[in-house]
Amino acid sequence: MKGHQTSWESQPLVNNKPAGNMMVATAIILSGETFSRVxxxxxxxxxxxxxxxxxxxxxxxxxxxxxxxxxTMQRDVILQQLHGKHLILxxxxxxxxxxxxxxxxxxxxxxxxxxxxxxKILAIKPKKLLNEVKPWIPSICNHIWYCSRQADGDPxxxxxxxxxxxxxxxxxxxxxxxxxxxxxHPPLSPDDIRKKKWLNQDSQVYAALEKVVTDxxxxxxxxxxxxxxxxxxxxxxxxxxxxxxxKRIEFEYASMVAH
Length: 259
Fold this sequence. Notes:
Elements: E1 13-14, E2 17-18, H1 19-30, H2 35-44, H3 52-82, E3 89-95, E4 105-111, H4 116-122, H5 127-133, H6 137-151, H7 155-163, H8 165-168, H9 190-195, H10 204-213, H11 216-223, H12 232-244, H13 253-258
Antiparallel strand pairs: 1-2, 3-4
Helix pairs in contact: 1-3, 5-10, 6-7
């Protein structure tokens, strides 16, 4: 009106592509939703929304390459951290649809070195008690795998071997038991006994560690190590994948990898 000229755009542009549309397309992927569900929501709300052609184009040209690039960066960092280290790997596979019509199988390897125990110990309070326990943490973590190796597939033997830890840390190496009645190490020399910081079984620090060792959830998990492997974390990961990559929906290969 009075000679003024102006222009208005509903959203800013990034490389000549509407930024809002790119954000919508990416958010759908990262939230574990599907275009059909979100577009149906927009339709009910009478909300102007991007079309399927534009969505799949943005997914192919922008979102998936960005996800792949970021994943590769993270993977390279982890591989550098693990380089030269011995790993205990657990593996499991999942198919993208039930029955005999599966299109893809995703097989996952995960480091199975358990830290359920270590986190529980590090949570001991006050700090004074934790400081007394800390010298024993490496031995306790190693004891977990010793228990599993000695169990021969018997969860009862595994649990009893695990509980025997409480005798060892207090310098008692023979003890009453149904299956396990003594420590598995050779007799300790007087010098070995002198160097160890044994815990008094009547002390507060012993009671705090005993609470961790005999925790019901810990014992439940420990019994699952009878075959020298615990895949609980791996199963949890695959359950989480169902949100982003449900088995009942068929994806293209690039989308499957990105999810």
